Fold Glutamate synthase alpha subunit C-terminal domain-containing protein.
Amino acid sequence: MNAKGVYYRDLNKTIRDLIFKDGVDEIELLNVNGQRYIGDGISRKVKIIIHGVPGNDLGVFMDGPTIIVNSNAQDGVGNTMNDGKIVIHGMAGDVIGYGMRCGKIFIKDDVGYRVGIHMKSHKDKIPFLIVGGKAGDFFGEYMAGGVLILLGLEENDKPIVGDYVGTGMHGGAIYVRGEVDKRQLGKEVGIKELNAEDYGLIEPVLKEYCEDLRLDMNQVMSKKFIKLIPVSHRPYGRLYAY
């Protein structure tokens, strides 16, 4: 389907009609240029392949689809996503995975600010968000569950992550390939070394990430990881009266 010049509401109506009325299992969109809300709220296991740059809130509330973006993406990818997978063969903007509850988001290159904010998990529903490049400030802010992995595969003088990492974090785990200066961390976060259980958790999803984005797993695992976890599950408990 050629999305060139198509208004975002019309594009999304056509996508939903193809999925829910016509029963289509795969949709390929050409010439996407900033159209918002693609894949939002879809609860079927369909594949949407995007050529071009989708607009904000890609995959919001989605519950099952696979979305592949063969370029960059903007802000709010996977906002409150419930299940499925989003693969981005480029960069993504701010607030990726906001309130994400399950599923996977794989990003090949850099991301902006407040990525992974308010991620959460419940029992066996664990969201995974992997960034192949570097991240801005407030990475993992107020994180309540799930797994964030930051790889920093492009070696340069830029820090792998900005400041205030994990500020307000009270659940989940952040895995960073490389080192993070303690001054960059929120006061709610501690640094741990990985154990066998950690590697058992992240290696299968990293293998899937490398397969989807055609990356070298050996390169990914060639550098030491650190684990960032909350030092308290109630970091602001003393601020409230009972």
Q: What stands out?
A: The chain is about 15% helix and 25% strand.
